[in-house]
Design brief:
With 214 residues, the protein is mostly helical. The chain has one domain. Helices cover 72% and strands 5% of the residues. It is built from eight helices and four strands, in the order ααααβββααβαα. The strands form two sheets. A two-stranded antiparallel sheet has the order 1-4. Strand 2 and strand 3 form a beta hairpin. The termini are far apart.
Length: 214
């Protein structure tokens, strides 16, 4: 990396730590409703900074577009027909909806696919190992999010608990996206991606521990 790239990456990392830690502290100790309502802003900033940090790899735009489209369409089928993920509805915390699906869910699919693809590429040599690790990292994060989703008014499954079908659905949608990521032989900068993924894990892990220890 040259000095400009390091500076840009460090600024982006500082900003996401600032926003995520503020969100955690605000939800636990401050005006929880206001900080939860700011989730789309946090997602938007994190995603914009991700694009900023990966802009030097132009082919990555195909992954962003494919993940956004696949995410929105699969969620549309889930919300409206109970397909792929199960029977669930979205709340209001994730912002404006299209056919019952928040636009920021498509952005979230793009963001998670790219950061887990970058991490997997850095950690594993074989292409199929990278694909499986990328999918696994997305599933692990979903496991942490699911118990918190109804509490934060993100989404809620019928019966209150995400069925096993949901996790198979995530793997089904994520798998071809990670195949595409690896097929394009993308190697964007690692540092921002691993910090953003770590923050996502910490955010939901801390909130989970807070709620279950209350």
């Amino acid at each position: 990396m040259n000095r400009t790239q390091i500076s840009k990456t460090h600024v982006a990392i500082f900003l996401i730590w600032l926003f995520h830690l503020s969100g955690i502290l605000g939800i636990i100790y401050g005006d929880a409703e206001w900080f939860v309502s700011a989730t789309p802003l946090n997602l938007g900033i994190s995603f914009a900074l991700l694009i900023w940090c990966t802009f030097q790899t132009p082919k990555i735009i195909w992954v962003y577009l494919a993940a956004f489209t696949a995410g929105m369409l699969s969620e549309y089928l889930g919300v409206n027909y109970g397909l792929i993920f199960g029977d669930y509805v979205y709340g209001g915390a994730l912002g404006p909806h299209w056919k019952g699906v928040p636009w920021f869910i498509g952005i979230n699919w793009s963001m998670l696919t790219v950061i887990t693809g970058i991490i997997a590429t850095e950690m594993v040599e074989s292409i199929w190992g990278r694909v499986l690790l990328g999918v696994g990292l997305m599933l692990f994060l979903d496991l942490l999010i699911e118990p918190m989703a109804p509490v934060l008014d993100f989404w809620e499954f019928k019966g209150g608990t995400a069925p096993l079908q949901n996790y198979f659905g995530w793997a089904l949608v994520a798998l071809p996206l990670h195949v595409l990521f690896q097929f394009l032989r993308l190697k964007p900068p690692f540092l921002y991606a691993v910090n953003l993924y770590t923050l996502q894990v910490l955010f939901f892990l801390i909130l989970l521990m807070r709620i279950f220890s209350a």
